[in-house]
Design goal:
GAF; histidine phosphotransfer kinase activity; 6 domains; Beta-Lactamase; 27 strands; alpha+beta; 842 residues; 5-stranded antiparallel sheet; coiled coil
Length: 842
């Protein structure tokens, strides 16, 4: 802003403030601040003789120039610099200081004292501006004094005998006191009595200052002041505290004027007004302004005000700290020059919000002095006058670091997701057809697209492979449509320009080729070329049923994914070249699997043939044992018990072999039943109670309240838990076996967890990897003592996997083991292929 324009606007602001109030002292602080900001002064002091004493505002000079009340007359207490302006009546300068007199009717009434910063002086333009301010202050004071004088003239002209007719003005708003020359009240109106809280009859005969509640000494000093002032200038004006008869304190603004009586006597008329509310409100306002000013000056955020056209009016120091610019460089300039050009449209939208009387909230980039940009979160409130926006007040918060963190996190998240998905595709090493399907699935998943198509091209641009977005199409139609799409559609455009093409509205964009029986007639599309070493291998097109569905983030993501997809295509093409070898390997694998199934079927048949006679042997052994027990033949009883135990053990081995064979042959089924988990646990506890009693261990059951029901193969789950509990009892001496049960949601489904914890001998870590292999055993001494085939854990793991769950184990030698079974709470069908991996926690 040019200096002249700056001075003119400042003078207009000061004039507006002075016109709006009859007491210019109410806006003195604002006038002094404006004068300091525009002239470049470090401090400004305004000394004004309003009430026969000197009042000073602003800066360090206030303490020096504010006279002591008991130093009278007031002129004697003035500092020499201000006294010099009174004598000279002209500007007086000394170094970085300048003193300008304020005169009214060629009479000195005050001084403007300005101090420039160290090692600086005021130029002519600044002093001329200060002279204009001094004249405006004098004119404001003149208007105020004329207002009071009119009241005095009215009373003197309209009431010849005021002492006898004062009651005519009993109900006017001002308090009227008629006093003799000694200050004794001769008469007063009703307003005066009401103001002081007494009756009208109680005032005559009292001294005026004492009626105002002043102590005798202070009352005498005040009346002497009134008399001397009236003799010197013919009027006395003062604002002071008075005390009513009830003890309350009020603030009075009083004016005294001498009145000539017809008999030649001189009386004194005093007009008083209660300005308590105004004075106290001003003090509160000034305190509030000081607090607000301190808040604005020290706020970490930019606080600004600007006109409706975007012209900046005020900026706090945070603007300089955050942008590197000085406030002077931008005050008076349009905010659009400061905002990034790509964000300018946001201000247009913000203005529309402001016209609807809404609070503006938007994020924009502000230009720093060093050429970088500050991300700012702007909140602004419009101020209206007659439905027109006159000014905006707002705050701009620096969110640069937050935006950077968000962008970094978003980029990392998208990159990670992209790499994970593409790595999944390439690591599977499938056929080319499967690779294309997987690539399309990945792209639709990460972008949210509803449909998509993929075309692979040879070096001549001919389509060699295609996956169409439509549901049904024969091979000939696929090639025909793909060739047309590459020739004239958006896919061909992406191939030719070797860049991602985004169409926000396929219904109205001429680049979109309309195909018959297309899956969408309206929506949006994204065409991504798949290139490797500058060679276009193919193109992927993604479709969404809504216009403007894809954004810049999708474009960037698919561009990055396209590179990985190109590698996947290359790998798949290499796989196709080795397809014959893979086919031979598959034939060999099929033969091996067939042999394995034949083995399992043979084992199952043999187990079945063994189980039938064993069942007969066990039945007859049990009958013979009952007869021997009835006869009391202990020798025979021991022999039969050995036979029965051996037969039952052999039957258990046969059953385990049969169960394992069924699982490996893929013929094991899930018998779905529903059972309350608590009922299942009661059954388990009853079953293992004899085992616990026969051992030196204790058993503890810990069950959460929300375990609910299990829907699945109850028999298989019970067999798993019995096997784990019996193993825990078998390998624990004088310890504790704990079964903990809880229910939880893994994000996809409800899961039941059963944890068997023992304090037994533990399992060495080198055995954990093979623990669930058939026939694998660790503690041979214990096994020989208790028996076992090494099939229990293998079958339990297979059963858990058939139900969609698994068993994990952790163990420490000498401290015990923890086996955890996790199965879905609802099992509907069997998982015919179990995981080859072992789930081990070491």
């Amino acid at each position: 802003m040019q200096p002249v324009q700056k001075y003119v606007e400042a003078l207009g602001h000061i004039a507006t403030q002075l016109i709006r109030t009859a007491r210019w002292g109410d806006v003195a602080a604002d006038v002094a601040n404006t004068l300091a900001e525009v002239s470049g002064a470090e401090t400004v002091t305004i000394v004004l003789n309003q009430y026969d004493e000197t009042h000073a505002w602003r800066g360090a000079y206030a303490a020096h120039y504010g006279p002591e009340h008991d130093a009278w007359p007031w002129r004697a207490s003035l500092p020499p610099e201000i006294a010099a302006t009174l004598e000279r009546g002209a500007i007086w300068r000394e170094g970085r200081y300048a003193f300008l007199p304020i005169t009214l009717h060629e009479r000195w009434i005050g001084t403007l004292a300005l101090a420039a910063p160290e090692q600086a002086e005021f130029d002519l333009e600044a002093l001329t501006f200060a002279e204009h301010v001094a004249r405006m202050l004098a004119e404001s004071e003149n208007r105020r004094r004329l207002t009071l004088t009119e009241r005095w003239k009215m009373l003197r002209q309209d009431i010849p005998d005021l002492a006898h007719q004062l009651h005519m003005y009993a109900n006017i708003a001002d308090a009227l006191f008629l006093c003799d020359q000694d200050g004794v009240i001769l008469d007063a109106n009703l307003t005066a009595a009401t103001l002081l809280g007494v009756s009208s009859e109680a005032l005559p005969g009292r001294h005026l200052s004492q009626a105002w509640g002043l102590p005798p000494a202070a009352a005498a000093i005040q009346w002497q002041e009134i008399q001397k002032t009236l003799q010197r200038i013919g009027r006395w004006i003062r604002r002071f505290e008075a005390r009513r008869t009830d003890g309350s304190v009020i603030i009075l603004e009083a004016t005294a004027v001498p009145l000539e009586h017809e008999a030649g006597n001189t009386h004194i008329l005093v007009v008083a007004e209660d300005v308590s509310d105004v004075a106290r409100a001003f003090e509160r306002l000034r305190a509030s302004e000081n607090r607000y000013r301190a808040l604005v000056e020290h706020a970490p955020d930019i606080i600004f005000a600007m006109q409706s056209d975007g012209t900046l009016l005020t900026l706090n120091p945070a603007f300089e700290r955050l942008t590197g610019w000085t406030r002077e460089e931008w005050l008076g300039r349009n905010v659009l020059e400061l905002v990034h050009e790509e964000d300018a449209h946001l201000l247009t939208t913000a203005r529309e919000q402001a016209r609807r009387r809404q609070i503006i909230r938007t994020d924009v980039r502000l230009k720093r002095r060093d050429g970088t940009y500050l991300f700012a979160e702007v909140t602004a409130a419009p101020e209206h006058a007659e439905d027109q926006i006159v000014i905006y007040h707002g705050i701009a918060r620096d969110i640069t670091q937050r935006i950077a963190i968000e962008q970094e996190l978003r980029s990392q998240r998208e990159l990670f997701r992209n790499l994970v998905e593409i790595a999944r595709v390439t690591s599977q090493r499938p056929s080319l057809e499967a690779t294309l399907h997987d690539m399309l699935d990945v792209a639709c998943s990460v972008t949210g697209a509803a449909r998509g198509s993929v075309f692979l091209l040879d070096r001549n641009g001919r389509v060699t492979h295609s996956i169409l977005a439509r549901e049904q199409a024969d091979e000939e139609e696929k090639i025909r449509l793909a060739t047309r799409a590459v020739k004239s559609g958006v896919a061909g455009l992406a191939v030719r320009e070797k860049r991602v093409i985004r169409i926000d509205d396929i219904a109205n964009d001429p680049r979109w080729e309309k195909f018959p029986n297309a899956p969408f007639m309206e929506g949006s599309a994204l065409a991504v070329p798949i290139s490797h070493d500058e060679e276009v291998l193919g193109v992927m097109t993604l479709l969404a049923g809504q216009p403007h569905f894809f954004d810049e983030e999708d474009v960037a993501l698919m561009q990055a994914a396209a590179d990985q997809m190109a590698l996947a295509v290359r790998n798949a093409q290499l796989y196709e070249e080795q397809r014959q070898l893979i086919h031979d390997l598959e034939l060999a694998r099929d033969a091996a699997e067939a042999a394995s199934r034949a083995k399992s079927a043979f084992l199952a048949n043999i187990s079945h043939e063994l189980r039938t006679p064993l069942t007969v042997i066990i039945g007859y052994a049990e009958m013979l044992l009952e007869d021997a027990q009835d006869l009391g033949d202990s020798h025979l009883i021991r022999g039969l018990e050995r036979v029965l135990n051996a037969a039952q053990h052999l039957l258990s081995v046969v059953n385990d072999l049969l169960n394992l064979a069924k699982i490996e042959a893929g013929i094991s089924e899930i018998d779905v039943q529903t059972v309350a988990v608590t009922d299942l646990l009661v059954s388990l506890e009853q079953h293992i109670e004899p085992l616990i009693a026969a051992s030196t261990n204790t058993f503890a059951l810990e069950v959460n309240d929300n375990v609910g029901e299990f829907v699945g193969d109850v028999v298989k789950l019970r067999q798993i838990l019995l096997n784990l509990l019996s193993n825990a009892i078998k390998f624990t001496d004088e310890g504790t076996i704990t079964l903990r049960v809880w229910r939880e949601n893994d994000g996809e489904r409800e899961m039941l967890s059963f944890e068997v914890h023992d304090t037994g001998i533990g399992i060495p870590s080198e055995h954990l990897q093979n623990l669930f292999d058939p026939f694998y055993q660790v503690h041979t001494d214990r096994n020989r003592k208790h028996g076992g085939t090494g099939l229990g854990l293998a079958i339990s793991q297979r059963y858990a996997q058939l139900m969609g769950g698994r068993i994990t184990v952790s163990s420490e030698v000498g401290k015990g083991s923890v086996f955890t079974v996790r199965v879905p709470a609802v099992v509907k069908t069997a998982q015919q292929s179990y995981e080859g991996k072992r789930s081990i926690e070491q």
